[in-house]
Amino acid sequence: MNTPTTPDTTIATSRLRRRWLTLGLGGFVLAGLVYGAYWAHTLRYRQSTTDAYVSGNIVQITPQIVGTVVGIGVDDTQFVQAGTPLVRLDQADAQVALDQAEAELGKTVREVRTLYATSSQLQALVDQRQTDLAMAREDLARRERLGASGAISGEELQHARDTARSAAAALQSAEQQLRAGRARTDGTDVKDHPDVRNAAAQVRSAYLTYSRTILPAPVSGFIAKRNVQLGQRVSPGLPLMAVVPLDEVWVDANFKEPQLAAMRAGQPVLLTADLYGRSVTYHGTVAGFGAGTGSVFSLLPAQNATGNWIKIIQRVPVRIALDARELAANPLQIGLSMRAEVDTHDRSGPRLPQLARKDAGYATDVFAANDLTAEQRVRAIILANEPARAAALPSQVAGQPPRQRLAATAAPSTGIAAIAHASTLRTP
């Protein structure tokens, strides 16, 4: 049964409806004001993109010499420390060349020692010739006094003069030989003699070639793209595998052109990875902007007076540096998708700053031990072929055969001598 509607009831209902409409409208207005304030304070300073990917260094492992692969120590996905031997080439030819160079250096040291000894002999000969000349001149002076008084014959006086001239000529010849000998030794000692230095350079070259039969990991990281096989003949520059250091990755975020106007280097960036979801966040900074590396984003139809036309919008990569501690806690891999949101509040810097690295950049010291070991081998060979200096070596070293003595005086703790016998090299 319908309740009769009275004028008072109609008025009350109308007022209630207006009240709810007012409250609803007020709520919408309030929500709009809150959102507007939030946009004005925060959202308009945020530039975000889901077109972002993890990037990093991919360190190629390439041989420096021609050789045949006889050992492979690692495989894809394995982690290696810097200096770990990755590939071993046949060492036979390099070992022969090194032995020849070392033998030639020892021979040269002994020949140069002979030069110094010859110079000493020539100096003694000059001294002897000076004495002979002095005696001949004294004898000539004495006979000239006797000849003036007629005590000796003219023939005997002439013989004394000939003897003096011969002694002077012999002295001049000895002095010339001494100067020629000294020209090859003056201003140097055995180890600095040009002939020894040339032979030493040949040893260093041969040793570096020998050391390059072992290919170590330049950096610590994960093995990727291994395509080398046992028995393969390789040449310089041929990629054998790669080492990827995942502790030094960054993010390349591709932003649309209009988004770049407010971005500056150093601005904070909040990132999430599809791998971990929004439960894991990374805090990075804008490191720089791609120069001339934009890519087509989309083709959008637009209307003008003559009809439809196509507008091209590009995306430009922005490099974002990541926090190393956050990377260690939640590692990322190259190629993973990311979402990046840049806070553009601080716009004080230039839009394209001319940034330069203040540190040494990327570097590795795993090859430095080879140069040091080569130098140590050269010094050991020179010492072994100089008896006076070799006598000063420790008795347990000086009494060993040449090859063992070299190892005892020049063996490094790292580098080729340490990894040449590495048992980690295996066949896959």
Short structural summary:
With 428 residues, this protein is of the alpha+beta class. Helices cover 44% and strands 23% of the residues.
Written account of the structure:
The C terminus is likely disordered. The longest helix is centred in the N-terminal third of the chain and has 57 residues. Helices cover 44% and strands 23% of the residues. The chain has a domain of 173 residues. It contains eleven helices and 15 strands. The chain has 428 residues and is α+β, with helices and mostly antiparallel strands. The strands form three sheets. A six-stranded antiparallel β-barrel has the order 1-10-14-12-11-15. Helix 2 packs antiparallel against helix 3, helix 2 packs antiparallel against helix 4 and helix 4 crosses helix 7.
List keywords for this structure.
428 residues; alpha+beta; 6-stranded antiparallel beta barrel; 4-stranded antiparallel sheet; 11 helices; disordered C terminus
Topology record:
Elements: H1 7-41, E1 46-55, E2 59-61, E3 67-72, E4 79-80, E5 85-89, H2 92-148, H3 154-183, H4 194-211, E6 214-216, E7 221-224, E8 233-234, E9 241-244, E10 250-256, H5 257-260, E11 268-273, E12 277-289, E13 295-304, E14 307-321, H6 324-329, E15 337-343, H7 368-384, H8 387-390, H9 395-398, H10 402-410, H11 416-419
Antiparallel strand pairs: 1-10, 1-15, 2-9, 3-5, 3-8, 4-7, 5-6, 7-9, 10-14, 11-12, 11-15, 12-14, 13-14
Specify the number of helices.
Answer: 11
The chain-level structural class is alpha+beta
Secondary-structure element series? HEEEEEHHHEEEEEHEEEEHEHHHHH
Average per-residue pLDDT, rounded, comes to 78
Low-pLDDT segments, ≥5 res: 395-428
Major beta sheet summary: 6 strands, antiparallel, barrel
Radius of gyration: 44 Å
| Sheet with the most strands: spatial strand order | 1-10-14-12-11-15
Number of strands: 15
Indicate the overall shape.
Answer: elongated
Helix content: 40-55%
Distance between the termini: 92 Å
Assembly context of the chains: single chain
Query: What fraction of the residues are assigned to beta strands by DSSP?
Result: 15-25%
